[in-house]
Amino acid sequence: MTTQSLFADGRALRRVVFAVPGQPVAKGRPKFSRQGGFVRTYTPEPTARYENLVKLAATQAMAGRPPIEGPVELWLDIELQIPASWSKKRQQQAIAGQIAATKKPDADNVLKAVKDGMNGIVWVDDAQAVEYRISKRYSASPGVRVSVEQLPLQAA
After folding, report:
1. 97 phi-psi bin (left φ>0, alpha ψ -120 to 50, beta other)
2. For residues 42 and 57, what is the distance between their CA atoms, to the nearest angstrom?
3. Which of 41, 71, 93, 108 could link 98 by a cystine bridge, Cβ 3.0 to 4.6 Å?
4. Is residue 144 classed as helix, strand or coil in its secondary structure?
5. Domains of the chain, with CATH numbers?
6. d(Cα 140, Cα 49) in Å, to the nearest integer?
7. What pLDDT is recorded for position 148?
8. What is the pLDDT, as a whole number, of residue 30?
9. Band of the pLDDT at 5, cuts 50, 70, 90?
């Protein structure tokens, strides 16, 4: 984590950068089940596992520091696995950035899973994210690179 003084009162801005390895997973819709006369809501297992992976990577990056407070900027570089069924030529084109990653998972759903995984670790709540930059492309090594930077702005 890096810090630099940009607040007028001399407080330091905080920044944390980390990577979540493996194929990115989109936030799944909540599931419902009946238990007696009650309806139980739960997060699908693949989403819960991925959010836990994000929590682990974020916890390591924070190295015991408290969560960032105030408005933040979030950058996500989503790198998807290239389909093994593609020809070698098509795989090389994907690595070179000549083929856009227009297939699932949707970038906004990956964003939701990553944001939820960072709650209480990198920031207090994901509502603090006020600026975003997201890219989605194919890569030989899939994963998500995350950068969160505190902004020199006042919270509402």
Report:
1. left
2. 23
3. 93
4. strand
5. 2-150 (3.30.1330.70)
6. 22
7. 97
8. 79
9. very low
Q: How many residues in the chain? A: 156
CB 14 within 8 A of CB 70: no
Tell me how far apart the alpha carbons of residues 144 and 80 are, in angstroms, rounded to a whole number. 9
> Do 27 and 112 form a contact (C-beta atoms < 8 A)?
yes
Q: What is the SS3 string spanning 61-120?
A: HHCCCCCECCCEEEEEEEEEECCCCCCHHHHHHHHCCCCCCCCCCCHHHHHHHHHHHHEC
pLDDT higher than 90, residue 12: no
Burial class (CB in 10 A: 0-12, 13-18, 19+), 50: buried
Contact 126, 115 (CB under 8 A): yes
Closest C-alpha among 25, 28, 131 to residue 71:
131
- Backbone phi, psi, residue 67, to 5°: -60, 150
Q: Cα–Cα–Cα angle for 48, 58, 6, nearest 5°?
A: 135
Residue 155, φ and ψ in degrees, nearest 5: -80, 150
